[in-house]
Amino acid sequence: MAHYQAVGSIPPKRHTQHRRPGQGDAPGELYYEELMGEEGFSSDSSLLYHRNIPSTTVGAAVWELPDQSTTPNHPLTPRHLKLHELFDAETVGTTDVVTGRRLVLGNGDVRISYAVAGAPSPWYRNGIGDECVYVERGAARVETVFGAFDVAEGDYVIIPRATTHRWIPVVGGDEPLRAYCIEANSHIAPPKRYLSKYGQLLEHAPYCERDLRQPDGPLLAEQVGADPDEQTDVYIKHRGNGPGGVVGTLHTLPFHPLDVVGWDGCLYPYVFNVRDFEPITGRIHQPPPAHQVFEGWNFVICNFVPRKVDYHPLAIPVPYYHSNVDSDEIMFYVDGDYEARKGSGIGKGSVSVHPGGHAHGPQPGATEGSIGVEAFDELAVMVDTFRPLELGEGGIAVDDGLYAMSWSKGAGRAAPGGAHSEG
């Protein structure tokens, strides 16, 4: 996100001496400058000034990741995954957002996981790509080397590749922390059509820089009650020969990772709340690109928010049937009443999988029932991928086995394999 920020203590000129306060006439020790940059010095970057040499480690071990294996969606079928059935209430208190994620869907470009967490995560760094974590429910403090955020329901947390951070859930609320985790093998950014050639969000974009929350910082170990010299483990997800090409390593540092006294640049984590998305509407039904919020390599992220709908006198507000021949469409239903899916069994916490090669659209009766409706009260997060998604162990565990039959006129008849449609 090319939106320059300068935080904390930095020198007037980059790549020049920056020192700690000295004693008397003696100069202080140098801070250690780290360039965190994308695309080999050819894209956005930030300079961070550390108390310690950022390359230092005193140990390395294997981090055995949760199951990252995937199973092809074959035979090809639409699916309904009930994410709220993935975690038992008894285990939430010991589950964290990093090590407790369960893989729902994935391919070589993006992995979608889900976690319901009540425990602080370890320090963590994704060395494969950026992460977009949508906070479905609950609240947390996210501490990073750039600073910290307080996040809550409806927040997208965008964390650039290789950013060391941790999640600390707020306990005692009405809901535990529920996190929908979209892990890219690339960078995640606003759609290019929303941006000027210099990176400013344009007037037609459904949000602007005022809607983005930058981290409060700098954040140092002593500010979180930690010893700056505390030996610390950092969990790293990186490329390798594991399932999905993903493996884990645990690095031990001889110091606490919160040692950045200042930074500046255009690469850093930020937060955007879905309630600040301004929906684009029209006289007739608007296609999903009108709802796009972010993009990565070979996938896009859209959100469907409460909004007024089509106002042509003959408009049909729900979507037409469509075959996205190049895409798999993954919809996570967060809140409200999703008009097009009525009668399918889908509700809050559901994920629908509409694979490329299968025409999909409203459930029977939804098209006629939507005529005359003036507004939709719905909130959903959609990921469209341009390569087929496979099912992770979490997705397989909560597949209802019924959804594919929900368009059949004979709702309730036995489906292949003995399943029955919910109609």
Largest sheet report: 9 strands, antiparallel
Q: Distance between termini? A: 44 Å
Overall strand count:
28
Which outline best applies? globular
Supply the helix-strand structural class: mainly beta
What value does the Rg take, in angstroms?
23 Å
Strand order of the biggest β-sheet: 5-28-7-8-15-10-13-20-16
Low-confidence stretches: 410-423
What is the average of the pLDDT values?
92
H/I helix tally: 3
Strand content: 35-45%
Helix content: under 10%
In short:
With 423 residues, the chain is mainly beta. It is 3% helix and 35% strand.
Question: How would you describe what is shown here?
Answer:
By secondary structure, the chain is mainly beta. The protein has helices spanning 89-92, 366-370, 393-397; strands at 5-8, 32-37, 45-50, 59-63, 70-71, 79-82, 102-106, 110-117, 123-126, 131-137, 139-144, 147-152, 155-159, 165-169, 177-184, 212-213, 232-239, 246-253, 260-265, 270-273, 292-296, 299-304, 307-308, 328-336, 350-354, 375-376, 378-385, 390-392. Residues 410-423 have low confidence and may be disordered.
Q: Can you lay out the helices and strands and say which pair or pack?
A:
Elements: E1 5-8, E2 32-37, E3 45-50, E4 59-63, E5 70-71, E6 79-82, H1 89-92, E7 102-106, E8 110-117, E9 123-126, E10 131-137, E11 139-144, E12 147-152, E13 155-159, E14 165-169, E15 177-184, E16 212-213, E17 232-239, E18 246-253, E19 260-265, E20 270-273, E21 292-296, E22 299-304, E23 307-308, E24 328-336, E25 350-354, H2 366-370, E26 375-376, E27 378-385, E28 390-392, H3 393-397
Parallel strand pairs: 9-17
Antiparallel strand pairs: 1-19, 2-3, 3-19, 4-18, 5-28, 6-25, 7-8, 7-28, 8-15, 10-13, 10-15, 11-12, 11-14, 13-20, 16-20, 17-18, 21-22, 22-27, 23-26, 24-25, 24-27
Domain Homogentisate 1,2-dioxygenase C-terminal: 299-373
Region (Disordered): 1-28, 345-368
Cofactor: Fe cation
